[in-house]
Amino acid sequence: MLNIILMGPPGAGKGTHAKWIADQYKLPHISTGDMFREAMASGSELGNKIKDIVNSGGLVSDELTCELVKERLSRPDCANGYLLDGFPRTIPQAEALKAFGPEIGREVNLVIDIECPSEVLISRIAGRRVCPKCGASFNVNTMKPKKEGICDYCGTPLIQRKDDNVDSFKVRLENYTKSTEPLLDYYKKEGLLHSFDGTLPILNMQSELLALLGK
Ligand code: ADP
Ligand code: ZN
């Protein structure tokens, strides 16, 4: 069974590879970023509470985030594996998952880390356009959709995320370095970490992932 965490700095390609892994291995793709954006778009209480922090690139509180993920992972569609994208992002979140994971029968057994230098990240983020409906990512320079401005998968007009600007990106990268990078050591010690080069062409990355995860 594949109970996977996908890690990497903003712009490393988590969303793109997550979509592929989830399709390939029939796993529910659980993206905390997507869940928070959906909450904001729906104008729910949670959405209003987190809007300013998410748009400025900050991190939502560990308490709120862990509660949301625990509830989501508890659902029956995660019983045969899952792919977590964007969680955990802090040591306290990892500790919480380590405690509640086995409790709800969802212990993590693999961590995939996508590495990418910051110069590459900034240019990817600047060109990124996303589908507000299905969450697919494109890039106006390097990963153009078939039809300009339109999602290949569901035909929805693409948008630029509010936090995909230079100032928010800086905050996100700082948070990554300070709060999330220490998790690499944490999962290395647990013997779960597998690191990949996020600058590889997508197809090469997919064949490396196939080699790790099986066909
Ligand atoms: P990124 O492109 O930065 O990896 P995500 O889509 O994963 O973006 O997340 C977008 C935003 O949602 C983050 O900048 C943060 O505000 C919030 N967020 C997502 N996951 C978490 C988490 N695990 N803990 C706290 N905040 C989170
Ligand atoms: Zn779409």
Plain-language structure description:
This protein is of the alpha/beta class and 215 residues long. The protein is 49% helix and 13% strand. It contains nine helices and seven strands, in the order βαβαααβαβαββααβα. The chain is globular and about 45 Å long. The two termini are 13 Å apart. Residues 131, 133-134, 136, 151, 153-154, 156 line the site of zinc ion.
Task: Give the structure's gist in a few sentences.
Helix content is 49%, strand content 13%.
Number of strands: 7
Query: Using only CA atoms, what is the Rg?
Result: 16 Å
Query: What would the average pLDDT be, to the nearest integer?
Result: 95
Distance between the termini: 13 Å
> What is the helix/strand order?
EHEHHHEHEHEEHHEH
How many alpha or pi helices? Answer: 9
Assign an overall shape: globular
Describe the sheet with the most strands: 5 strands, parallel
The amount of helix comes to 40-55%
Strand order in the sheet with the most strands:
2-3-1-4-7
Strand content: 5-15%
Q: Which stretches of 5+ consecutive residues score pLDDT under 50?
A: none
Based on helices, strands and strand pairing, what is the structural class? Answer: alpha/beta
* Ligands bound to this protein structure: adenosine-5'-diphosphate, zinc ion
Sum up the structure in keywords.
215 residues, alpha/beta, five-stranded parallel β-sheet, two-stranded antiparallel sheet, 7 strands, 49% helix, 13% strand, globular, binds adenosine-5'-diphosphate, binds zinc ion
